[in-house]
Each structure stands twice: as C-alpha cells, then as structure tokens.
Amino acid sequence: MSLQRILIKTHHMTSRKKIATITRAAKRLECAVVLKIGSPPGIMLCEGGEGESREWEDVVRKLRYKDMRLMKRELISENKLVSVGLKNGEVMEIDSIKEYAKLLEKDLELYQWWRVAMGYAKDADGSDGET
User: Residues 117, 71: contact at Cβ < 8 Å?
Assistant: First the structure.
C-alpha cells in the first residue's frame, strides 16, 4: 500500500463544526492527522494510504477554509506520525505553533520536512523544497 503525506495551511481553524468534519473523515479513512487550531495560521498534517489521504483532502477542500494552501503532498515510505505517538484514524488538536513543532520534533526527519514545507527553513541543499 502506498502512503501519502499532505500538509495544508489555512488562515485559521476555529469552527468546531469544520474540525469535527475533518476528525470524522480522518477516523473513517484511517488517516493520522495533526491540527493546529485557534489563532492563525491553521495547519493540517495528514498521513495515510494514498487514496484515503486524497479523499481526506477532498473533504477539507469542500469546507472552503479561508486562504487554504496545499503546502506539500508527497508519497512516503512510512507513516512518521506514528513515530510521534499518533495511530491511524487518530486526530490530535494543538493550539500553538510552538507545541505543534515540539510534537513533530520527536521525529527529526518529519520536523525538518515540516519546517521546509512551511517555508520556515531551507532544505539541506539551500532550496525551499519547491520543485
């Protein structure tokens, strides 16, 4: 089974109704998801099967978040969110960038990937990760 990682940034995530919809979709599709909710920015990081994560992304798109941007989508060989403590079908909500980064730091490869994809750091070759 091919795995995929999706990173989405929005202006903010405060609607409990939209967050509940995202959570239900993640559970139904067995995707591991970390949400940065509350004040701007809103961040969604999803890992799951390729088809399931695409379907999850479609659910998110239909919610019409303000300034929604797909920061990165890529095929991966292993689910890194499992290594930071999430299970497939589980959603974690975090309300600060600092705590979000602290969670991802548990897997340095995932943390560095996230920093580059968000534009907070340059890739090892000096690029911003864009192709």
Answer: yes
